[in-house]
Every structure is written in structure tokens, then in C-alpha cells.
Amino acid sequence: MRDYKLVVLGAGGVGKSCLTVQFVQGVYLDTYDPTIEDSYRKSMEIDNKVFDLEILDTAGVAQFTAMRELYIKSGLGFLLVYSVTDRQSLEELIELREQVLRIKDSSRVPMVLVGNKADLEDERVISVEEGIEMSSKWGKVPFYETSALLRSNVDEVFVDVVRQIIRNEIEAQGSGPTAMGHMSRRETGLTSSPGPGSPKGFQPSQDPSNTSNTLDNPGVVRPLSQGKNKKQETKRKKRRARIRV
Ligand SMILES: Nc1nc2c(ncn2[C@@H]2O[C@H](COP(=O)(O)OP(=O)(O)O)[C@@H](O)[C@H]2O)c(=O)[nH]1
Ligand SMILES: [Mg+2]
Question: Where is this region: Disordered (predicted)?
């Protein structure tokens, strides 16, 4: 069994620790020391195989440090997190992603773009469309909106990155990037969407009640389905309608 090192990156206060702790321990910590940088372990079954995940919850991304270079080097997959309530946090991801690609020296690094705090509809300043736009600019990096608070799309973002890592490994073992072409998705055990470089149009979920859908369709934008009230649900419907056009 292999260790899969995942790194959670993003500006301070976007919810990296809340997402990580929610994923690993299934609890929502409202107050978490913003200076703590810690790693967590979790075993997880994906497609009937158990994976040992080591997740590094980073802190203080303002400066480039030798330490950061090290953990980016050792990381296999990356969660790039912004908050939908903080425009600056999305802008900071541009430089962070470039850093990751530079250090990994590859344009095919397993990663997901994560817009957290999607439950805060009234404080939202970044629309779903802007998230999609960023993801498209990045070569269709899978994009999710999450809520650590509601535990919405939390497992999905981590599973998506792991699936991308597995897919890269299979391709590396085969005869290059076309190796997957000889195998059906069933044979590879992979049912996730193509990663960066294999563009697939974003489709908002047609059936918000079908949450299992997400795992088989990373790259799919998943606005939150746990409507707290009717107003939010109406807003979401409008948003979905807009995306569909
Ligand atoms: N409403 C809401 N608040 C969140 C969410 N995730 C994090 N927060 C809040 O944002 C604060 C900062 O989160 P934290 O995980 O410490 O951010 P980090 O600096 O990126 O690790 C937390 O104390 C929470 O109050 C979320 O999904 N929804
Ligand atoms: Mg933190």
C-alpha cells in the first residue's frame, strides 16, 4: 500500500484546515489556529482499493520558502483552495499554481480548484462562473465548490485528486500518454473524468440529489445541494440555468 501525499494550498482563512479536518475526522472546527501547519493521515477505499493518504494542511502562503518547495516536491496531488467570499484568495491561487507547476516541472500535476464557503451565499463575491473560467484557463482543472461547514463536496475533492494521481501512475506504467487508450475505463478501475489536457465541458449537476454522481464526474461543478432555505435554492437554480446557456 502506497502513501499518497496531498497538499492543501491557498490563502489564509479560506478554510484549508476546516476542509482537511472535516475530511479526516468528520468534524467542523470553527476556530483553528491559522498558523498551524500539520499533516494528517487517512486510509480510504476508492474503487475497492485502499489508499493511505497523507494530507498536508499548509499555512502562511504569503512567502515562498524552501520548506514550501520541499513539500510541493514531495506532494503528489494538490488542492488549490479559495473562498467564494474573498476575491484576493482566488487571485493568489494563480501564483501558487504556477509555483506548483514550476517545482513539479510538469503541466500535468494532479490538482483540483476548490471554491470553499459556498454556504455563505450572502457574502459571496465570486460566482460559480468565475470558478469555471479559472478552471478553463488552467486546462479544465476539475472545479468544485465546497462547504467545510456543511461537509459538502469535501470527500469529493480529495477523491478527485487521488483518482488523478492513480491515472497518472497508470499512464506512466504504460507506454506513455496513449496507454489508457488501450484500456477501457472499467479495466483501469477508473471512472473519473479526464484531467487537465483532456477537456470535458463543465455541466452543472442536473440532479442535485444524486450525490454519488460527483465521484464519477470530477470536473463537474457541484453547487451545494443542501439548501438551507428556499432563497438559496432559488439562487442556485438561477445559477444552474445560467451555466447551462
Ligand atoms: N461558513 C463557512 N465558514 C468556513 C468554512 N470553512 C472555513 N470557514 C471559516 O473560516 C475560518 C478559517 O478557516 P480555516 O480552515 O482556519 O482557514 P485556513 O487558514 O485556510 O486553514 C474558520 O474559522 C471558519 O470560521 C465553510 O465552509 N463555511
Ligand atoms: Mg489553517
Answer: 173-245
